[in-house]
Design goal:
Blueprint lengths: L1 H4 L1 H4 L21 H11 L1 H21 L4 E9 L20 H12 L2 H11 L5 H7 L10 H18 E5 L5 E8 L2 H58 L4 E6 L5 E5 H25 L13 H22 L7 H90 L6 E5 L12 H26 L8 H6 L3 E6 L6 H4 L6 H13 L10 E6 L6 H14 L4 E5 L7 H4 L8 H5 L9 E4 L4 E4 L8 H5 L3 H12 L2 E5 L8 H6 L4 E7 L5 H13 L4 E9 L25
Parallel strand pairs: 7-14, 8-12, 8-13, 9-11, 9-12, 13-14
Antiparallel strand pairs: 1-3, 1-6, 2-3, 4-5, 10-11
């Protein structure tokens, strides 16, 4: 009420002159869920019809469809790298990517080549059950090869259409399923498919092995020739250079180390020279020694003679103490000692000469060996210079031998791998189904329900986008710049004129609330002269005019209602009044106004009907007689209410609006388009009319979500279209 109290100060404000707003602007305040519920409720007949139609179609599709029997075979696919033909220094072996591997296997399971293989393996084009199930023509003797190929191609396409590949999550298992009208045929096709897939995999492995063996054989031939050429070049070079190889060894890296004759001789001479040098040093140390070396042979004899001399000398000394020098015994002993001295000296000289001869021999041997070593060293140095090229040739031989040996080993491995186990195995064979897998009544009904819901949602969305009518009465404020003065409920079980006679009815309460709002529009209360109009016919403006007049009269005011819709009068029909004399007669020049006023005791008001239809209605309404009539009536009545024609297509309402205090604009909820309302309001504003506000009529169940249900539990309406 506080807002309406300020309305009289804002009717000429910019707010009252707001342009036509966007379609959704007035509905943004309503939550999405409530807007959705309102849309579904408003189009419930469409929603129910579409869903019911889809369910019926689902039932028909279920009962008319041919039963399908599904059989499933399960296989295991283990990741396995393709046959490798690489060796070190050749092609690199790429790691197997499991995701790519399995995607490849799934694609191979659904490949056309596998389908054609199954057709050939099972001779399906001649299978009567297969041809009957899929309506194929069996090959005949008179058919051309092209026609037979076309039949086989069509059979392969049918297999692919009815094939279903289902990987088992988090495993290496894959289910292969076929659905056909025959349970036996479904099981046969599933078994054929997995069997041929396994066989095709084996064939590919053997084909890969064969290709690898062919490749390796060609490479082995080339490497063997290269090895022979390099070995031949090495031997020829060694022969030409006089390099004699005694032995050769191959280390862990495959490098060959050779031992030549010159190198072996140098080792032997060096060893002999070292020994000779040691002997020479030992002989040199024994030159003056009569006990070692060559003198060692005569040492026992010299020792014995020295022992005898010592004994003889001792005896000689003893006898000299007794006898004189001329004593025969002494002379004999002295002669014996002299002989022994001469013998010892001779033997000692002979021993020293042996050591000298041994030393000389050792020196000579040492010098001979040194000379030989020098000669061999010269030869070895020359051979070393020549062995550089020989080492290069040896490396070529080693490289070629390594490549040949490695490739030969790979060739043997491939031969063993070609007869290895396959990485694809059949886990479960297909079983003959004992009941159809499709059609499923529950599933079809669920799909039909979902499809119906989706179609209904799409239709509601389209209808909502197309529908620009007023559903929430509060929208008139934001969309058209009009204050909302009242929302009038829809009446279904009686006419509005009858419902207004019951002051306990919801529609009477609504118009009473409207009248209360009118009292805040001007400083003197409710406006004295009011025109009610709408954008198009049958929006409830005549009923609203009667309702406002009735509640004003109930407050003790003298009220007169003028039916200015002289082109299509309606109040006389609603109230069952004569229309022989009325507004058109007065505007035409008849001054007997009292004869035109009809009292309505039940409603407590007076009325002037429209009168007979004139040929020039716009000219009559635009004449000076209309303002004279309004002035005359205001002199006798507290309020004058004029039920004017609708705005669209007619000039009548703008002509009348200039002579009244203000206009009440009637809008039918859920019906009138926003563009029509905006156009009508624009015409009124251009004519200088003062718009008091809007009355939204026929607010029904569709509008309850917006808070306009009045809480009475009744369903009111303006009646059928003929009484609107």
């Amino acid at each position: 009420m506080n807002d309406l109290a300020a309305t009289r100060d804002s009717l000429s404000s910019p707010y009252a002159q707001m342009p036509y707003a966007s379609y959704d602007e007035g509905r943004d305040g309503l939550p999405v869920l409530e807007r959705t519920f309102a849309a579904v409720l408003g189009h419930r007949n469409w929603v129910l019809g579409i869903i019911a139609g889809c369910l019926i179609l689902g039932l028909l599709a279920t009962f008319l469809a041919t039963p399908q029997y599904t059989s499933t075979a399960r296989i295991e696919i283990l990741p396995d790298a393709p046959v490798a033909t690489s060796i070190q220094g050749e092609r690199d072996r790429a790691p197997v990517n499991e995701a790519a591997f399995y995607n490849t296997q799934y694609s191979l399971l659904q490949s056309r080549s596998l389908a054609e293989r199954v057709v050939r393996a099972g001779n399906l084009t001649a299978d009567q059950a297969f041809n009957t199930a899929f309506k194929l023509t069996s090959p005949e003797a008179g058919m051309t090869s092209q026609q037979r190929r076309n039949i086989s191609k069509r059979a392969a396409e049918i297999l692919l259409q009815h094939l279903q590949i289902s990987p088992v999550r988090s495993s290496s298992l894959v289910d292969v399923s076929f659905a056909t009208p025959s349970p036996q045929l479904s099981a046969k096709l599933a078994d054929l498919w997995v069997t041929q897939f396994v066989q095709a995999s084996i064939d590919r492995r053997f084909a890969a092995t064969s290709d690898a063996r062919k490749y390796l054989e060609a490479r082995l031939t080339t490497l063997r020739q290269n090895l022979e050429v390099s070995e031949r070049a090495l031997i020829n070079y060694a022969t030409n250079k006089g390099i004699v190889t005694i032995s050769s060894e191959t280390d862990a890296n495959g490098q060959t180390k050779t031992r030549t004759l010159v190198g072996s001789d140098i080792e032997a001479v060096s060893k002999a020279l070292a020994e000779a040098r040691q002997l020479r040093i030992a002989a040199e140390a024994e030159l003056a020694n009569t006990q070692t070396g060559a003198a060692q042979v005569n040492a026992p004899a010299v020792g014995a003679m020295r022992q005898k001399r010592a004994e003889a000398a001792a005896e000689l000394a003893r006898m000299r103490t007794i006898f004189g020098d001329d004593y025969p015994g002494i002379v004999s002993l002295r002669a014996q000692v002299d002989n022994l001295d001469r013998s010892i000296a001779a033997e000692t000289a002979r021993s020293t000469q042996g050591n000298r001869e041994a030393y000389n021999a050792a020196v000579k041997r040492e010098r001979d060996l040194e000379a030989e070593l020098d000669r061999l060293t010269v030869d070895y140095n020359a051979q070393q210079r020549e062995s550089i090229q020989m080492a290069i040739l040896q490396r070529d031989v080693d490289s070629n031998r390594q490549l040949y040996d490695g490739l030969l080993q790979r060739y043997k491995e491939i031969g063993a791998a070609g007869v290895g186990t396959n990485n694809i195995a059949v886990v479960d064979r297909a079983k003959i189904a004992d009941k159809p897998s499709s059609p499923s009544l529950g599933l079809n009904l669920m799909l039909a329900l979902l499809a119906g819901g989706a179609l209904a949602a799409g239709l509601i969305l389209i209808l909502e986008k197309i529908d620009s009518s007023v559903r929430d009465p509060q929208e008139v404020i934001g969309r058209f710049g009009l204050p909302l003065l009242g929302a009038i409920p829809e009446v279904l079980d009686q006419t509005v004129a009858e419902a207004l006679l019951d002051k306990k009815s919801a529609i009477y309460e609504a118009y009473f609330s409207l009248m209360t709002n009118l009292t805040f529009l001007t400083e003197h209360g409710a406006p004295r002269s009011i025109m009610l109009t709408s954008s198009r016919p049958k929006e409830g403006k005549s009923n609203s005019a009667l309702g406002v007049a009735t509640v004003l009269a109930a407050k003790g005011k003298s009220v007169i209602l003028v039916d200015a819709d002289i082109r299509n009068p309606s109040l006389n029909r609603y109230l069952d009044l004569s229309n022989k004399s009325g507004l058109s007669h007065y505007l035409s020049g008849n001054d007997d106004l009292n004869s035109m006023i009809v009292e309505l005791p039940k409603y407590g008001l007076s009325i002037i009907t429209a009168g007979q239809l004139p040929p020039n209605a716009a000219e009559l309404l635009g004449s000076e007689r209309l303002p004279m009539l309004i002035k005359s009536l205001l002199a006798s009545y507290d309020h004058v209410l004029i039920d004017s024609p609708p705005l669209l297509g007619l000039a009548d309402a703008p002509l009348i609006a200039r002579h009244v205090e203000g206009v009440l604009f009637t809008i039918e909820a859920n019906a009138t388009k926003s563009r029509a309302i905006a156009t009508a309001l624009t015409r009124l504003r251009m004519a200088g009319a003062k718009l008091f506000g809007a009355i939204v009529t026929k607010v029904g169940a569709r509008n309850q979500v917006y808070g306009y249900g009045y809480g009475y539990g009744y369903g009111y309406s303006y009646g059928d279209g003929s009484k609107t």
